[in-house]
What we know:
It catalyses: a long-chain primary fatty alcohol + O2 = a long-chain fatty aldehyde + H2O2. Belongs to the GMC oxidoreductase family. Long-chain fatty alcohol oxidase involved in the omega-oxidation pathway of lipid degradation. FAD binds at residues 246-261. Pfam families: FAD_binding_2, GMC_oxred_C, GMC_oxred_N. By secondary structure, the protein is an alpha/beta fold. Among the domains are: 27-174, no CATH class; 212-279 and 353-425 and 611-671, FAD/NAD(P)-binding domain (3-Layer(bba) Sandwich). Helices cover 32% and strands 14% of the residues. It is built from 19 helices and 19 strands. Strands 2, 3, 4, 5, 8, 9 and 19 form a seven-stranded mixed sheet that branches. It has a six-stranded antiparallel sheet with strand order 11-12-13-10-16-17, with helices on one face. Strands 1-7 form a two-stranded antiparallel sheet. Helix 1 (38-51) crosses helix 4 and helix 3 crosses helix 7. The chain is globular.
Amino acid sequence: MVETKNNNNNLNNHDYQHHPLLSGGRRSDSKYSHGFSNSQILSLTAMCEAFIPPISLPENDNVDRFTRSFYAASGSQFPVPQEVAEKMVKRYPSDALFLLKIVLILLSTKLGTLLLCGTICFDTKWPFIHSFSDLSVTKREKILQKWSNTPSSYIPLRIVFMVVKLMCFYIFFTLTDENSNNPSWEAIGYNVKPPTRGSDKPRKERPLDKGVVEPKKESDDTFLTLVKSKGLEVEDSDDGFYNIKCDVVIVGSGCGGGVAAAVLANSGHKVVVIEKGNYYVPEDYSLLEGPSMNELYENGGILSTVDGKITLIAGSTVGGGSAVNWSACIKTPNDVLENWAVDKKIPMFGTDDYRSAMDVVSERLVFEESGGRKRCRGAIVVTKSSTITRKLKFKARVTIAAAGSLSTPPLLVSSGLTNHHIGRNLHLHPVLLAWGYFPPKPTDTTDNGKCYEGGIITSLHKVKSNEDPSKTSAIVEAASMGPASFASLFPWISGADIKDRMIKYPRITKLFSLVKDQSSGEVREEGKVTYRLTEPDKENLRVGLREALRILVSAGAEEIGTFRNDGQRIKCRGIESSDLEEFLDTIAADGGPRSRCENWTLYCTAHQMGSCKMGCNEDEGAVDVNGESWEAKGLFVCDGSLLPTAVGVNPMITIESTAYYISKKIGQELRKGKF
């Protein structure tokens, strides 16, 4: 459907207007709909202040006004707590919200504070016991530290600690004023050009404008006319439906759905792609972390497994994962192809046609000098709407589910499919993060060398297995994080510590250890993902994390650490190798926040695979070796959920190649009149 071109200067050219939804700014509506009571907001405000307390710097310190203002800023300042509450209600699951609200109510009372916080709320003066908000910031900090570090009966409070901490820092570092600026950015050295607004210049036609239908901009009547103008046959039925006829309807426009749409449209078939996300092009992007996460990622980038252990990053826009991934283009490893073709008995992966498909999709992704334009090949893309009162019914010869590994299984389950593999076998390529601080050199007077500048992923390091050097235990790559994402995930030790750390943000490099997981999870209901890490995968993550830390030391980091809740770190300038090894021996793949251990960590994943895996028969897979459902003729799956196992490297090329191969087969069958 789309051929990607690239010009690195596009995002720094201000001759265009950024998309309003990606431009930040103050809320247009001053009213909040979170439903928190005044007492709950008071407790939440007190927690936010404890996470980000105001700190006075000595007057004789040689610091600029931006730094002084940053240290003086507090998480209690309006509208941070209100925005935290609003975002939590929109993004967090109901069980987490229920727990949070109960805790906030209890903290608003003296007895409730005594129950949850212990004797620290005692005082020698009347009234002897204080509610949480009446305690000093220092005491509130100690309470939060206790919730984070104490296992066993404190697990519910650790969950509350985690959800408030994540959202507090996310809001604090993404909230912008009417000029799309955040007052803390100057102090932490985060410089992004503000988005342009209200340009008088007419917008250039977007690459897919002739093929995109955005129902939210239409009424019932104009929508009907618009769809007909695209060459589709539409019937206005008496039962409240618009019946739209086409050859192929594809749900999802990511790495799988986008490729399938391109192949089938180029073959002359009428293709409709249904996408719940909005349509943006590079010229729309503002580089603002908050609105970009909100618009381009599933659940605004705030999604995790049900136990809160693994943060799930998945695209939710036209282009899906291909629009937001870090452009790591790696072909399917030979050993993986052999395993799938021979052991899993899926012939596709042993064919020359599949290898040719990898070459084709790789060539289509090659950067060319064409001003960032894309070429539409004739598919129609329909995005989500809340303004059309009629329901849409698509009558197609072939239906392709390509909503991604987190959404395709719930779609199939809700459609009545019952194969027991649907939603299971979910692989995530779990990741653990390491960081290294590289202080600026005294001779460095330029603005270069900031962690958010330059290439995203420019190299990949394979960590060989000690037991079998021919095998890879983990891979190490660099992570790209805006300040809000970094602060949200970084371990909180105290308010002063996190502010000291954020001042160093531009010079902190993040590396991650990624494993080809044998572990698997399940997703059969939208937004509810379960996953359990096996001990071998934990060991491989540990090996990779140790290697990432060694790389940072070798590169000259002054200080290194992990994202474990206790702030595990070590100064390493001039460190003896024996001392470094002693520190590395403490590195582990710890449990998540629900683990009954003092130390815990958060995992991340940007790769989801295998939840509707192909198989040689119904007992081996959710669909057959051509991606077709065992239960419904003409229903195909064409995304990362098809893959039989984890790939072990960034899976974009593998997903696109699989989609290319399968959609070619579908096109051939359509021409034969099979469907």
